[in-house]
Amino acid sequence: MGRITLDKVTKSFGEVNVIPPLDLTIEDGEFVVFVGPSGCGKSTLLRLIAGLEDVSSGQIRIDGKDATDMPPAKRGLAMVFQSYALYPHMSVRKNIAFPMKMAGLPQDEQDRRINAAASALNLTAYLDRRPGQLSGGQRQRVAIGRAIVREPSAFLFDEPLSNLDAALRVGMRLEIMELHKRLDTTMIYVTHDQVEAMTMADKIVVLQAGYIEQVGSPLELYHSPRNEFVAGFIGSPKMNLLRGEVAAQHGAATIGVRPEHLAVSTSEGQWPARVGVAEHLGSDTFLHVHDHGFNDAPMTVRVDGEMPVKHGDRIFLTPDPSKIHRFDKQGLRI
Amino acid sequence: MARAVTNRRKLIVTVAAWAVGIAIFFPILWTVILSFKSEGDAIKTPLEVLSSAWTFESYATVQERSNYVRHFWNSVVISLGSTLLGLIIAIPAAWAMAFVPGKQTKNVLMWMLSTKMLPPVGVLVPIYLIFRDVGLLDTKTGLVIVLTLINLPIIVWMLYTYFKEIPGEILEAARMDGASLRNELIHVLTPMAVPGIASTVLLNIILAWNEAFWTLNLTAAKAAPLTAFIASYSSPEGLFYAKLSAASTMAIAPILIMGWFSQKQLVRGLTFGAVK
Fold this sequence. Notes:
The complex is a heterodimer. Chain A is of the alpha+beta class. Chain A is built from 9 helices and 18 strands. Chain A folds into 2 domains: about 5-230, P-loop containing nucleotide triphosphate hydrolases (Rossmann fold), CATH 3.40.50.300; about 235-325, CATH 2.40.50.140. Chain A has helices at about 40-50, 90-105, 105-120, 135-150, 165-185, 195-200, 220-225, 230-235, 245-250; strands at about 5-15, 15-25, 30-35, 55-60, 65, 75-80, 155-160, 185-190, 205-210, 210-215, 240-245, 255, 260-265, 270-280, 285-290, 300-305, 315-320, 325. Chain B has helices at about 1-35, 40, 45-50, 55-65, 70-100, 105-115, 125-135, 140-165, 170-175, 180-210, 215, 225-230, 240-260, 265-270. In chain B, helix 5 (about 70-100) packs across helix 10 (about 180-210) and helix 9 runs antiparallel to helix 10. The interface of A and B includes residues 77, 87, 88 and 102 of A. Chain A: This is Sorbitol ABC transporter ATP-binding protein/mannitol ABC transporter ATP-binding protein.
């Protein structure tokens, strides 16, 4: 069980309104990712759900029950923090046992759950160590273990992978996804990394300045972004946004073409341009092209890694007509 | 070659460090040496002092003339009492400022520190008169109160810095894990704050033990601590070097021993925040 409903929830810190009235429903068992640039209110929103911040107005319901004024301990949610937030003076075993000790579970049940969590997270050998003696990845696993043993109705993750190095991050990402498949429990995950959002989510909530810009599956957001902001935020490298005459030709104020939807030719095509910096990833190459005559910013094009182009080459770009996104003056999708 | 340079530099730094260390320690060492000399030998040139005979004479005289144990006991009561009272006031204060800061928290901290900038002699007369009127002159209670007030800003500042170092997320994690406020305090906050509280206690005991201005001015005989015991052997003529040294050595010995055993804790407290 873990259906969470936010009804006209607002949050202000003094004069500053961080979350304007916001409605959102998270279904039981869903993996929902809150994504947005820093300061967009995604962490605040998570903390409101956790009960670590009080809402200024509106209602939060968990499994149909009004949880707006419940203290965090009573909400039945577990949270994994960016800094891991382990208890430094306790062993791994005691860290994991802490929520069960608070709940007054019998000792044999505690031991059973600790052992199950430790073997699932490869922590069995480290149960008697202190957090200070563990690596970043191991600490994050302890934090997850501490969350699992509570058997919460939902897990809250606040940028849990930001402190890990790139290789570990990919590994932990997979582990969290595995965990979700296995436990089938609601998970709410906050990140500023759109790659994490795309790869992990059942449902992505894109936030900007406290407003929900769009809610949808990763591919919905990729294929039909509701506005320019979502179009620019989802997808890597970013979508090229072109204004002026070229947009007018398509009956829009702005058009967007993703780097992977531009065909490149050295002989002919719609838009002549000049190659600037090329980023070779091996499988793909990202070309930053200039002098395309639309606006000052370079456009990004994704080409095959084998394509023989170099700095200063003249090339021609042709957009895939079915993959052109059109936006009106307000930035909304047409 | 690089290695040789490093070694030479290491040697220079080591010698310099020892020189500074000995220079700082020298007055205490000399006091201890003089305390084992006769009054006549103690005023001779340093070389003569070192070669003269050792004696316990000064210690015997000091014991005879004044009551060390009573002064010692007064010092213990005053320094422990003011530290305990200070902690009772400062822990909640520092706790509130560290974990629930308001708009004025920084200003309150600065204001508290600013009271340390006032020369104590500036408030001596009013405090003396108040103490006289309420009957606190020459009482241990009076000194406990004064020393608590004098050292309170330092206790609050130290504890504040320690509490600040405890990440708020850990307390939030405890709350998410179902801990009540009481359990949060007992199982998470206190164990994490104990080292900080311990260093604060140690430093404050030392400060209170050595405080001389107020203890000398507000006591006569009954409540006089060891500082007054030392002062009673200092005379403008400087004729009682050996006895003064013996009294000083006896006064600083307890705190020196305590400091020696707790030096690890103390150094951590004094340099806290300097190295992370």
